[in-house]
Amino acid sequence: MAVGSAEEIVDTSGPPGEPMGRARWRWLRLALPVLMGLVLVAAVVTITLHNARVNRADALRLTDDLIRALETSVQREVQAYLAAPRVVVRFLADMIDDGIQGDAVADAPLEQVMRTLMRRATTLGAVYAGDERGHFVMVQRAADDRLLSKFVDDTPGARRVRLVTRDEADRVVDDRFDPDDRFDPRTRPWFQRARETRGVVWSDVYRFFTTGALGVTASARANAADEVPLTVAGADIELTAMGRFLDRVDLGEAGRLAVIQSDGRLIAVPGGQDWAAPAEVAATTLLHLDDLADPALHHLYQRFRVDGQLREVVNIGDSRYIVSASSLAAVVGRDWWLLLVVPERQFVGFVEVNTRETLRLSLVIVVLAVLAAVVFTYQAMRADRRLAQVRRAERMLADQGRLLTALGRVPLIADDQDDAGLQMLVRLAAEAVGARRLGIWRLEPERNRLTSLEVYDREARGHTAAAALPAEHLGGHWQALVEGAAFAVDASGSPDTGIVRYYLRPGGSQRLVSIPIHGRDGPLGALWLEDPPDAGAMPMLQEGVAAVVAALAAARLAPSDAAGETGLRRAAAPSVVPQLGGIDDLAPGALRQVSLAARREQGLLEQVRTRVGEDDRIGAAVFPRLAALSLRFGDDVALAARDAEGGSVLQRLVEEIEAAGERHDVPYLKLLGDEVVAAAGFDGDADAAVRRIADLALDLQRICREILAPVAAQPNYRLGIDLATAMGAAAGFEAANFDLWGDAVRVAEALSASAPATAIQVSESAYEQLASDYLMRRRGAFFLADVGATETYVLVGAL
Fold first, then answer.
1. Does 164 or 6 have the greater pLDDT score?
2. Quick one: 630 and 484 in the same domain?
3. What is the dihedral of CA 415, 416, 417, 420, to 10 degrees?
4. Among 152, 179, 184, 467, which is least packed, fewest CB within 10 Å?
5. Which range has the worst mean pLDDT, 79-83, 215-219, 276-280, 338-342?
6. Residue 390 has pLDDT above 90, yes or no
7. Is the model more confident about 646 or about 107?
8. In terms of C-beta distances under 8 Å and separation of at least 24 residues, what long-range contacts does 740-746 make, across chains too?
9. Are 277 and 283 in contact (CB under 8 A)?
10. Residues in contact with 781: Cβ distance below 8 Å, sequence separation at least 6, in sequence order
């Protein structure tokens, strides 16, 4: 980043009279207002001369945009209006497929569902269903918010038509039989068209049998089994109701709107008028636009017949109109058209208002003064931003200088047999950039995973390595890593991405900046900075400290013949304690890692022998390496709540936890108040036991999340896992129960109590056995008696 020289920096701290002559400053102070006045006068004259022309042009542009918006609005209204019958008939057809109606259409359950649908879908005139035997059931809207249910049982020789009327409270107010009703659904067009077609079909406009009103019907055939009579469900919409629905479209006082067929016959207009032809004409005939005494609509229809879809301004008589014709076929699936006619004065009337407003152009002075203040403020803010950038650049340059000085004392980084140099590099870089956690990750495209080479946590002041993230956990960011591209992730803005779900959130981080590490043949990995102090500083990080670290790490990440297949420099912790003869070959740190569990076991046995004496005087079983789990609930109200089905949340949790224990072969499982304790390894196989406990913990984490999320905005549960010694014995007041106590149970409970909400905290003893097969994140230090400070980890998932 280029930094200006000292000569280019102007000192504005002194009074204006010091950097320039007094006369010159006075001249500027007097001339500046005059100049501004002249500019404002010129602006007033210019605005006055061009106001009418500019407003006229704006009106023409706004006209086209508004007509498009009106067309879109009407299309949405019509689509929304016709969506109800389409959804209802498909829903009824699916219910009939599922056998809800039994063997007859006129069963009560189907009629009850229809009544519910009519109460909810207020735009429908009726819903019904009929089968090929002539049976029929219908719920129709009647006056005073009543519903009329009609049942037709067309059994040969025993035909019955029952009519039941219910009020708005669903109480029966009339129940009678109509022997004169000869309605047969099989003769209706909606039935005949639907029986030959799969899916929802629409009828032509026709008069309804019961009400005599004009409308259209949506119907669908149920795909029932062959032994069930063919059944068709239908729903009616009256055209007058569609017109009332279109009343919500605001076209002004003189605007007109109509939905027509391609032959010019009216389907619907606002106002709910019945546009049927006179009674002497056929019952299904609609009025034609030519029959209306509306010159504008008539003119538009004549243009429509020639041009089809159009939008233009035309002269009709002494007035100018904006007319539009657009197809609704894509919206309703029928050859319907939308006609709009609006007087032009409704759109250009504001020109006169603007002309009057030009007489008050003195307000422009105020506007310009405000604009000037805004400009001056913007300049000051821009100067502050520039100054902040300069200072930040200076700090980064200083950090880079200190880092480069410190790197001069770092051991050889490229030596994969010595991690001291790499650990020092990562620690120094994390301190320099101020990131909460900084790590070097190796890209392994052939194995579809990303492996940590070295990660340093500034808060915990510890190093971790050998963790692996599979490509499926990284989502779309895996491709960016493979292509060697930099990216940034914010957990608050991308809550559902894989890298947030599987990496950031379990580790308690909110932001991640990924800087690619390139080698001679392409990308080798990435440098990850978690929670950097400035999320928008990626370009500076790439050019500064991060770029230096990435260049140095490339030497370590570069492939070599001695690297082996895995590319890991460090093997996972062994699952068993090595024999005494191999201790001399281990470094002190490694000796502590592999012997921690044995030291804890030996410490307990020494206490037992010191306080009790010989082993045969111990009245309880001693389990040297027992895997223990503690699940602790922190929300008492959530445990006392009921789930969506009305059952107890606590009871459901207990049932699911017990089933999970059986699935993972965990023999000891006990509920103690708001805590669940589980244990495995009574057979002495600690390696298998701790893996079963880890799998159980991940399963319990999922169970708690699914059950508690609907009843708690932020589920509060924590888990802890330890592998250590424990004691157990059968005891009780009346019936003996097996009880566990000791180091493993106590530490697991302490880990669950101190774990982050919804997280699984693992002790170092358990980590030694799980590191090779599970993804872990280092969390901090934990004090153990007879051992001292040990590490704790967060279990993220299985590899």
1. 164
2. no
3. 70
4. 179
5. 276-280
6. no
7. 646
8. 740/626, 740/628, 740/668, 740/677, 740/679, 742/604, 742/626, 743/600, 743/604, 744/623, 744/626, 744/627, 744/628, 744/679, 745/628, 745/630, 745/677, 745/679
9. no
10. 460, 462, 789, 790, 791, 792
Same domain? 156 vs 224: yes
By CB atoms closer than 10 A (0-12, 13-18, 19+), residue 729 is: middle
Residue range 116-174, pLDDT digits in tens: 998 888 888 899 999 888 899 999 988 888 999 999 988 888 889 999 999 988 899 99
H or E element that contains 556? helix 545-557
**Other Cβ atoms closer than 10 A to 565:** 8
Residue 726: give the domain boundaries.
592-798
Please give the full DSSP string across 69-84, using - where no structure is assigned: HHHHHHHHHHHHHHHH
Rounded CA separation 504/493 (Å): 13
Q: For position 269, what pLDDT does the model report?
A: 77
Domain end marker among 194, 217, 238: 238
Q: Which neighbouring-strand residues pair with 457?
A: 437, 462
| Same domain, yes or no: 86 and 212 | yes
**Which residues, 6+ apart, have CB-to-CB distance to 516 below 8 Å?**
481, 484, 485, 486, 523, 525, 526, 527, 550
Give the pLDDT score at 163.
92
Where does 98-223 have alpha helices with state H? 108-120, 189-195
Kindly report which listed range (225-234, 272-281, 486-495, 602-611) carries the lowest average pLDDT score: 272-281
> Same domain, yes or no, for 505 and 554?
yes
Tell me the one-letter amino acid at 763: S
- 416 with 551, same domain: the answer is yes
CATH at 92: 3.30.450.20
Q: How far apart are CA 228 and CA 99, in angstroms?
A: 9
Residues 605 and 523 grouped into a single domain = no
Q: In angstroms, what CA-CA distances link 639 with 28, 185, 647, 709, 735?
A: 76, 54, 11, 12, 28
Give the separation between CA 219 and CA 210, rounded to whole angstroms.
17
Other Cβ atoms closer than 10 A to 402: 14
Residue 551 CB neighbours (<10 A): 11
CB-CB contact of 475 with 499 (8 Å): yes
CATH of residue 536: 3.30.450.40
* pLDDT bracket for residue 532 (50, 70, 90): confident
Statement to judge: residues 538 and 624 lie in one domain: no
**Are 546 and 647 members of one domain?**
no
Please state the separation of Cα 129 from the chain's center in Å.
39
Count up the domains in the chain and report the number.
Answer: 3
Q: What is the CATH number of the domain that holds 723?
A: 3.30.70.1230
**Which helix H or strand E contains 239, and what residues bound it?**
helix 239-245
User: What is the DSSP secondary structure assignment for residue 616, as one 8-state letter?
Assistant: G
Query: What does the block give as tokens for 455?
Result: 């990660």
601 is a domain residue: yes
Residue 703 lies in a domain: yes
Helix axis angle, 363-407 relative to 545-557, nearest 10°? 40
